[in-house]
Design goal:
- The chain is an alpha+beta fold.
- The chain is built from ten helices and twelve strands.
- Strands 7-9-6-10-8-11-12 form a seven-stranded mixed beta sheet. It has a five-stranded mixed beta sheet with strand order 1-2-5-3-4, with helices on one face.
- Helix 2 packs across helix 6 and helix 3 packs parallel to helix 4.
Length: 328
């Protein structure tokens, strides 16, 4: 059976690097930052009541899937989604987006398709494409290989900032469906799946941009939303980022897409849940009635349901139907 590590991605080593980076990067002024749930975005106050939230991300080796198919019009959507969806996890409204495209030799067709996707993503998320950078770096990137990064800024008030500090046992976990694999775990998926056009086309399905539906929920139920997790790198362990004092019991997970069933034939079940979204691209921790929130999400054509509850077991997540237990 294969793992993310055997596919060349060592998550534990990356986590250790991030901890070293935090220690070295800490300078005067860091204490001024507001704490946003999960560290999905840095939140910097510009007044006593308002702040800007900033984040950056890429689409990983999904770029190689696009290259294999010669189809580049969806990865720009992914790029925007990865950043915009992180901003909403702290309650921020996405506002501005910047892109960075680095390649060995600029190909007009490829670049145009990528930018077209970025524009589509910005339109869907409500962000302005404010600018970016394109760099030709022969010797660093060969052939059609390139890299892509995004940077996004949002706005949030102190009253709407989601910190995760109010997550308590007994609160409900709402799962919001993904469109498929989204933009993480592609190194492992590429290793175990057949490299045919049909399979790769499924991998290119763009990441859902959840910003407008979530904004609608937050505008009406701000006080009830205690945490939001974007299920990206690290899979369902992203829930642990919200509050280290609690755990989760998942009794009714959302249906898994066919692509995950194909991957699961080669990958252990616990590795699946700590690498992929497994059908749940976003989750919300909710206090009170869930049905009105679910109705708003469904009106936005998103499949959503209560998938479980918050428990008293710190940093422990159990998935009942798969008999999987993850720990922080």
């Amino acid at each position: 059976m294969e793992t993310y590590s055997s596919a060349g991605v060592n998550v534990e080593r990356a986590d250790r690097f991030v901890e070293r980076l935090k220690a070295r990067a800490r300078r005067s002024g860091h204490d001024d930052l507001w704490r946003g749930a999960g560290g999905y975005a840095a939140v910097y106050p510009v007044s006593e009541s308002e702040a800007v939230a900033v984040t950056t991300d890429g689409v990983g080796t999904k770029l190689l899937v696009a290259c294999a198919l010669g189809q580049y019009d969806t990865i720009g959507i992914d790029l925007v989604a990865m950043c915009a969806n992180d901003l909403i996890c702290v309650g921020a409204t996405p506002t501005l987006f910047l892109d960075y495209l680095a390649t060995g030799r600029l190909d007009d067709r490829i670049a145009d398709e990528i930018i077209s996707g970025i524009v589509t993503g910005c339109d869907e998320s409500g962000m302005i494409l404010a600018g970016g950078e394109t760099a030709e770096m022969p010797g660093v990137y060969e052939g059609q290989h390139f890299d892509l990064a995004g940077f996004a800024l949002g706005r949030v008030t102190r009253s709407k900032l989601i910190t995760g500090e109010e997550i308590r046992p007994g609160q409900k976990v709402i799962g919001v469906a993904s469109s498929g694999i989204h933009s993480n775990g592609l190194s492992l998926a590429r290793k175990v799946l057949p490299q045919d056009d049909k399979t790769y086309a499924a991998l290119l399905t763009p990441t859902i941009i959840y910003t407008r539906p979530v904004a609608s929920v937050l505008s009406q139920y701000t006080g009830e939303i205690k945490g939001i997790a974007h299920i990206t790198g690290g899979g369902w362990r992203n829930l642990f980022r919200l509050n280290s004092a609690v755990g989760y019991h998942i009794s009714s997970p959302l249906p898994r897409h066919d692509i995950f069933e194909q991957i699961a034939a080669h990958v252990p079940e616990d590795e699946m849940y700590q690498t992929f979204n497994m059908g749940m691209g976003l989750c919300m921790i909710v206090e009170g009635e869930a049905e009105p929130i679910l109705e708003l999400l469904r009106q936005a054509n998103l499949a959503a349901q209560v998938v479980g509850v918050v428990t008293e077991k710190p940093m422990t997540l159990t998935i009942e139907r798969s008999t999987v237990t993850l720990r922080g």
